[in-house]
Amino acid sequence: MKMAWEPRLIVIACQWCTYQGADLAGSLRYSYPPTVHIVRVPCSGRVEPEFIAEALRRGADGVFIGGCHFGDCHYKEGNYKAIRRFKLFKRVATDLGIEPERIQLEWISGSEGKRFSEAMTEFDAKIRELGPNPLKGGAQ
Amino acid sequence: MSKPKLAYYLAGGCGGCDIAVVDLSEALVDVALQLDIVFWAPTVADVKYKDLEAMPDGSIDVGLFSGNVRNSEHEHIAKVLRQKCKVLIAFGICASCGGIKGLVNLHTTEQLLEKAYINTFSTDNPEKILPQTTVVVDGKYELTLPTLMDARALDQVVKVDYYIGGCPPYHEHIAKAFTALLSGQLPPPGSWITMGKAVCEVCDRNPVLKGKPKKLATEVKRTIDGAPSEDGCLLEEGYLCLGPVTQGDCGAKCPSANIPCRGCGGPIPGVKDFGLRAISAIASMLDNEELVDKIPDPVHLFYRYTLPSSFLGKRIKR
Ligand code: SF4
Ligand code: SF4
Ligand code: SF4
């Protein structure tokens, strides 16, 4: 029998907000799916399209970027830069045949532990619906 | 000392790179006198594949490979040249990154054949005859054609020692590259032969070089929309110029002619995937996120010359 497929989700989280939100979710015992693998970055503005592409190329089934709400960026405008890059990358990736739902960005603050757990649960469900990343097992 | 031996091959390219070498004009004569051209197919010298195949391994000093690898014949000659040449150079952006002709990877071979041989307006092919890889003529002569494959950059097929960007490489840059080759002053193997500066760094329109800050673009324009200023940065004015991420060995030829850089020089040092870095650079230069949606056809813009060497290399087909 083939092993049942479990999604692998990469969450790139800003250390000032979404990463804290994940921490809070943990302390408050809000659960979220074990398919989530968090990578901490100094700012969502640090997330280069290369990071998302590399995760997908290496077989991540979904990539989620978490940053601070507008006006809350520790470095003032990192998140504005993040959304412009993210939207442009998503357009290109979609044109190259990647389902847009595999790539998400959301603003989740350090006090939104509940929202973090909800967002992860929704993302996991969405990716299960989509199935495995078509690049999985492809060129490494 | 005997003259260094040179081989030149045009694979999935347009011949423009060959012309760029010829464009060296007098400089070419000097260079040619110092070289022994043992193979230049299919454009210049009348040397056959079997002659090349018969040469001893490693007997050619430098091989220049132009065009991408698009069919079984290109792939075969790429492998033969790798064996015969001490130094193999991806010459021009087709060989280095797949080139403009690498955009074929957005389509299937079936789609492309149908378009070229059946659906184009000027085609008259009522029997819908498509090219075949083998055909028997008069019941006894078997003729063959190479098999089409997804376009690849040369280094996706064989190891490449050096890369030279440009579509085609700029002739003054070729002259410098030949000089470096002949004098043995080459960078470490695996590098691009480049002066290492971005197009912006050699562009007369660059406000930073005039001590002024670079402003964000507040609109997105196509080249057909209006006209750029005489000496302002095209990107500031909304023309999506890829100068920030492109090697400027051409000396910023396009911006100096009012045309935004399209990236033919190849990625600036340290960048593996040209399009991804271009996305990052252009997104950072836009004033607001609404402008992102106004960019027409981003894949063709950002991967115009580099799709085969990109993170996916092609469009996922379902
Ligand atoms: S790089 Fe440009 S000029 Fe050279 S073969 Fe390719 S398309 Fe032609
Ligand atoms: S973006 Fe283009 S026009 Fe502006 S300085 Fe760079 S190369 Fe020149
Ligand atoms: S400006 Fe850009 S597109 Fe034009 S020749 Fe130079 S590198 Fe190529």
Structure notes:
- The complex is a heterodimer of chains A (140) and B (318).
- Chain A is 39% helix and 16% strand.
- By secondary structure, chain A is of the alpha/beta class.
- In chain A, strands 2-1-3-4 form a 4-stranded parallel beta sheet, sandwiched between helices.
- In chain A, strand 1 (9-14), helix 1 (18-27) and strand 2 form a beta-alpha-beta unit.
- The longest helix of chain A is centred in the middle third of the chain and has 18 residues, at 78-95.
- The mean pLDDT of chain A is 93.
- Chain B has 318 residues and is an alpha/beta fold.
- Helix content of chain B is 26%, strand content 15%.
- Chain B contains 10 helices and 10 strands.
- Chain B has helices at residues 16-22, 26-33, 49-54, 72-84, 93-97, 109-119, 171-182, 253-256, 274-284, 298-302; strands at residues 5-10, 36-41, 60-66, 69-71, 85-91, 134-137, 141-144, 148-152, 162-164, 191-192.
- In chain B, strands 2-1-3-5-9-10 form a 6-stranded parallel beta sheet.
- The mean pLDDT of chain B is 94.
- The interface between A and B is medium-sized, with 24 and 30 residues.
- The structure holds iron/sulfur cluster (3 copies).
Q: Could you state the order of secondary-structure elements of chain A as H and E?
A: EHEHEHEH
- Count the DSSP helices of chain A: 4
For the biggest sheet of chain B, the summary is: 6 strands, parallel
Q: Are any ligands bound, and if so which?
A: iron/sulfur cluster
Topology pattern of chain B, helix = H, strand = E = EHHEHEEHEHHEEEEHEHHH
The interface involving the most residues is between: A-B, 24 and 30 residues
What is the 3D form of chain B?
A: globular
Parts with pLDDT < 50 across at least 5 consecutive residues of chain A? none
**What is the makeup of the main sheet of chain A?**
4 strands, parallel
- The Rg value of chain A, from CA coordinates, equals 15 Å
Q: What kind of assembly state do the chains in view correspond to? A: heterodimer
Organism (chain B): Thermodesulfovibrio autotrophicus
Keywords (chain B): Oxidoreductase
Pfam families (chain B): Oxidored_q6
InterPro entries (chain B): Hydrogenase_assoc-protein (IPR051349), NADH_UbQ_OxRdtase-like_20kDa (IPR006137), NiFe_Hase_small_N_sf (IPR037024)
